[in-house]
Amino acid sequence: MRSKESLKLSLKKWQLREKTPKHRFYFLYSMFILAFAYIIDELATNFNNILQNEVIDTFIEGSTENEKLAFYTIILTAISAVSIFSFLYKPLADKFGRKPFLAINTVGMGVAMFICFSAQSLVIYGIGLVFLYFFIPCDIQVVYILETASDKHRSFWLAFFKAIAVVSIAIVSPLRSWAITLGHWQLAFLIPAIIGVAAGVVMFLFMKETDPFIENKIKFLKKEIRNYDKPKEKVKKNAKDAQGGIISAIKYMFINKHLLWLFLVGVIFAICAVGINNYSQIMSNSNIGEQKMSLILFLYPFFTALVEIVAGILSDKIGRKKANIFTGFVTLIGFLYFVVGIKSNWYSGVSGICLGLFMGGYLSSVDIFNVMSAEQSPTNLRSSLLSVINVSLSAGSFLGTGVLIIMTTVNPYLDLGFFGIVIIIPTLFAGLLILMSKIPETKQISLQDVGEKIDSKKEDDEDEIKEVEHRFK
After folding, report:
1. What is the per-residue pLDDT across 133-153, written as a single tens digit (0 to 9) for each?
2. pTM higher than 0.90 for the full model?
3. Domains, the chain, with CATH or none
């Protein structure tokens, strides 16, 4: 247990941070640095999917493409299970701050991509993926952006940064082609790896902590000092008072049950990720050729970014829930016509647009989902609750992948495009139905006092219950 003097010293340190003025250009360069954080995150997320065919051909043996895919999917599922442990790590940002973990995550993804670049066997490549899947789900830059943006334009700014990051994916296709031309496809990892490590160092040196975190940290330390000399049994410990932690976050979810519904929606909706994880294999199985595939991979990020921006604007204008109807519709139409276009040998540009619509619709829905989660979470538990909520996305993705493994085992010649359509349609409708009926609108809620508002409402409800019970007696 920390001494009272230590608490006071820590309080002075945070108060000094609060009073330290920001440079007039701080907002601009902080936004620039956050854009790099998001770019590295998106590149790390998408590299393995885009290079899936090369990974399978280099490291996996099998008689048919689907058998090799099934074996690789099993390995990838086992490796990606490490992402579950990231939800124990991400809550530390509620205790120690957003800034250090933003830097650590970015450096970590850079190092992971360097391991993938240097791998000469599936084991070493798998180790690189273990690091990637540990750091990718953390998304501290999302918490940072949400706490920095204004209440009226929070969803737009998150979409704006995501759009910049998604457009950067367009460089993966030229990098992939360049690396394949040189006879070493893993060279594609090298440049993003160097940028990731360099960007993480810059973040550590020049970024400042978010204002909501500093304010909440000062409030927490003052309360700890006030309660220091009180008998422990008289100090009321609530989940809402904790500085991060999975247990406290889960307890708080039962205080604000809308977060439980968001968790369920996340599980259902993330089953659609079966299309995100296998679009490269869908193209490969259709034998469309390297040139057409490269064009599709180059084009789709631009239309993904366009959908992101439109969804962000709609989310701030008409509300999170209505915007999610738009993104759900775009997700379904995009994937449907992407598969039809690939099977019918449409012009590659059209297929690239459709893939971009599908990716943009899905990723925008996830972003709006994160915004709604943040707007239901108090500052001291925001990163922890987003971590728990994001477990639902991993769970849904694992569920969809599990069904895919079973289906490809039963039928090695399964049509992945048709399978994706059959899976995506019902999960989209089920997720949207629960979202619209069970979760309230959260547009323009102030992140600084969201916890106080929720707790105040809970206390009012408890007082009303007690009054009714008293009248009954």
Report:
1. 888 878 888 888 888 887 888
2. no
3. 7-459 (1.20.1250.20)
